[in-house]
C-alpha cells in the first residue's frame, strides 16, 4: 500500500484565490511527522511546513497552513492568496518514528496559478 | 538558498562509468541524506549518515555507495552506471538524526547517462 497518496496530479487555481492540495497517509506508528515541499521548475526542493502527529494545533507558515485530520489520516496543504510564483510541484512527505528519519514522498501535485 | 551545496549541478556520462556526487550540509547540521528522483520511481530515499556513521539505508543499489567525512561533507559514488540511473540526485541535511527537524535540500545533481 502507498504510504503517501496525493490524488491530484495537476490543479489550476486563479491568482489571489486559496487552494487545497490533498495528502493522505498510511502508518501504524503513533509518532510521525508530515512535511510539505515545493519543487519549482528549476528543480530545487524547498521546505514549506511541518506537522507532528502529537501537535494539537494545525501548523501555519505565512500563506501556508496544514489542515491536519489525524483520524482521517490526512494532511492537506492550504495555500492562501495564490501567487504566480506558487506554480510548482508540491510533495507531501512522512517521517515515521519506527523508520528512522527517512522521508517517504507522495507522487506530487502540479499546481498552476492562472493570472 | 537552503545552505546545502551540491556539486556538480549537471553530469553527463556513459554506461559503465563511475561518478562521484558531492554534498556540503548546512552549517551545524550533522545528518546528511541522499535521495533519488526519477520519472518512474519518484523521490526515493537512498541513505542517511549522522556525524560520520551510516544511520539508515533505503533503496540503494549495491553499485552505489556513500560516506560522510570528518568535516561532515558527504559523497555518493555511483558505479557501473546504467541508463536507468539517469535521475536527479538530492542531498539533504538536518541538525540531528531524528524528530521534527525538517530536512533542507540542496539544488540536486542531474545525472544523465548516454
Describe the structure in your own words:
The complex is a heterodimer of chains A (115) and B (114). Chain A is mainly beta and 115 residues long. Chain A has strands at residues 4-5, 10-14, 19-21, 24-25, 32-39, 46-52, 60-61, 64-69, 74-79, 88-96, 104-105, 109-114. The N and C termini of chain A lie far apart (38 Å). In chain B, the strands form 2 sheets. In chain B, strands 2, 4, 5, 6, 9, 10 and 11 form a 7-stranded mixed sheet that branches. A 4-stranded antiparallel sheet of chain B has the order 1-3-8-7, with no helix packed on it. Classes of the chains: A mainly beta (115), B mainly beta (114). The A-B interface holds A 33, 35, 37, 42-47, 50, 52, 91, 93, 99-105, 107-108 and B 2, 31, 33, 35, 42-45, 48, 55-56, 58, 88, 90, 92, 94, 97-100, 102-108, 110.
Please tag this protein with its features.
heterodimer; A: about 120 residues; mainly beta; 6-stranded mixed beta sheet; 4-stranded antiparallel beta sheet; 12 strands; B: about 110 residues; 7-stranded mixed beta sheet; 11 strands; about 0% helix
Topology:
The complex is a heterodimer of chains A (115) and B (114).
Chain A: E1 4-5, E2 10-14, E3 19-21, E4 24-25, E5 32-39, E6 46-52, E7 60-61, E8 64-69, E9 74-79, E10 88-96, E11 104-105, E12 109-114
Parallel strand pairs in A: 2-12
Antiparallel strand pairs in A: 1-4, 3-9, 5-6, 5-10, 7-8, 8-9, 10-11, 10-12
Chain B: E1 5-7, E2 10-13, E3 19-24, E4 31-38, E5 42-50, E6 53-57, E7 64-68, E8 74-78, E9 87-94, E10 104-105, E11 109-113
Parallel strand pairs in B: 2-11
Antiparallel strand pairs in B: 1-3, 3-8, 4-5, 4-9, 5-6, 7-8, 9-10, 9-11
Amino acid at each position: 500500500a502507498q504510504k503517501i497518496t496525493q490524488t491530484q496530479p495537476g490543479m489550476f487555481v486563479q491568482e489571489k484565490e486559496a487552494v487545497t492540495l490533498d495528502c493522505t497517509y498510511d502508518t501504524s506508528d503513533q509518532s510521525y511527522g508530515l512535511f510539505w515541499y515545493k519543487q519549482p521548475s528549476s528543480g530545487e526542493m524547498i521546505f514549506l511546513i511541518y506537522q507532528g502527529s502529537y501537535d494539537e494545533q494545525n501548523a501555519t507558515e505565512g500563506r501556508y497552513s496544514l489542515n491536519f485530520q489525524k483520524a482521517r489520516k490526512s494532511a492537506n496543504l492550504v495555500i492562501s492568496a495564490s501567487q504566480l510564483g506558487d506554480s510548482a510541484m508540491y510533495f507531501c512527505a512522512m517521517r515515521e518514528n519506527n523508520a528512522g528519519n527517512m522521508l517517504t514522498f507522495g507522487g506530487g501535485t502540479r499546481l498552476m496559478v492562472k493570472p | 538558498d537552503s545552505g546545502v551545496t551540491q556539486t556538480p549541478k549537471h553530469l553527463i556520462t556513459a554506461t559503465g562509468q563511475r561518478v562521484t556526487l558531492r554534498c556540503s550540509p548546512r552549517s551545524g547540521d550533522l545528518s546528511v541524506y541522499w535521495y533519488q528522483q526519477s520519472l518512474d520511481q519518484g523521490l526515493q530515499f537512498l541513505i542517511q549518515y549522522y556525524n560520520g556513521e551510516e544511520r539508515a539505508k533505503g533503496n540503494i543499489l549495491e553499485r552505489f555507495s556513500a560516506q560522510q567525512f570528518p568535516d561532515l561533507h558527504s559523497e555518493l559514488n555511483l558505479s557501473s552506471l546504467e541508463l536507468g540511473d539517469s535521475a536527479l540526485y538530492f542531498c539533504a541535511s538536518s541538525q540531528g538524526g531524528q524528530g521534527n527537524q525538517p530536512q533542507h535540500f540542496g539544488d540536486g545533481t542531474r545525472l544523465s547517462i548516454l
